[in-house]
Amino acid sequence: MQDLDVYHRTESFYEDFLECRQLLAPFFGAQRLPLLLTASGSGAMEAAVTNFTNRDDSVLVVVGGKFGERWLKLCQAFGCKIKVLNVAWGNAPTPDEVTKQAEGTRAVFFQANETSTGAFFPVEGICRSLRSSGYNGTIVVDAISALCAHPIAMDNWGIDCVVSGSQKGFGVPPGLAFVGLSERADSLFSTRERFYFDLRLELKGQAGGRSAFTPAISLILGLKTALHAMHQGGGIQAVFDHHLRLATAARASCYAMNLKLFAEHCPSNALTAMTVPAGIDGSQLLKSILQNDDAILAGGQDELKGKIVRLAHLGFIDRLDLVSGIAALEFGLQAKGHKFELGAGVAAAMAILK
Ligand SMILES: *Cc1c(COP(=O)(O)O)cnc(C)c1O
Asked: Is the minimum distance from the CB of 40 to ligand 1 under 6 angstroms?
């Protein structure tokens, strides 16, 4: 019988591992090849906090939703002195605000895409503003749901660390986390104790395709296939164009269904959050869509529970998936008595996707 087991301490697997790092790099906009970690995206967030801060270091955390809160909890767990820049959910921080607050801190943590609200933060503007003000600390960006939907240019914009994961834009099952690092990252590493997520060790080993611990082999092989698919055809620019087109269609459908865009000043290309009309309970709406059409749309969490619906258009979602999601939402809205012309959302989206 053929041996189906893939052993990771082999030249052939080292090559697969390195190929994934190389194919990922353009999504980070970094010369330095991103590191692969076996963890969900939050593992890479933790690695960023432990590798770039010491206890009692002063840090700035931008909180504009659930994932900003995760940065906050991580920095608390690891004993940082935290300044919080609170942003109303659904909004984005301005480059000026971030730059003013960042003064004197060792590191700044924020999201590219705040998945809980559908807001995209002006990453380029924030980073350029920080660097032109002379900010010399570590800039860390959570791009877990942003990579593939938005171009990120670490080296150009002066970002030191970008974290991401396998299951959002890359359409691979959960379990792999990615860490992009700047050239100067070596001089920014903290001295605190760490073990599983030691990026200094990973940098050394992964240069030869060797991770410090047993990697999620099956996911790495799946990632290689997914990355090859994304680099084919129009290359990664086509991936960004595709997400922009789906996002534009989703926003048009939102207005056509007589709904408001939740993050209307800074909508993401990864997902579209729509405000549920007053008088309709969003949780009930999603339940009825699931029951009647077996379609899963995401709702809001915490303060946004029952108030928004989130339509994903990230990863290997195609135009037909998006149109059927919009149709399911239309059926649901009509059943709940929302006033709009049935089919208008689908028509608006199709006109853009044709
Ligand atoms: C999904 C997500 C995370 C968390 O990633 P896990 O893989 O669930 O640990 C963090 N940040 C953002 C912006 C996300 O979308």
From this structure: yes
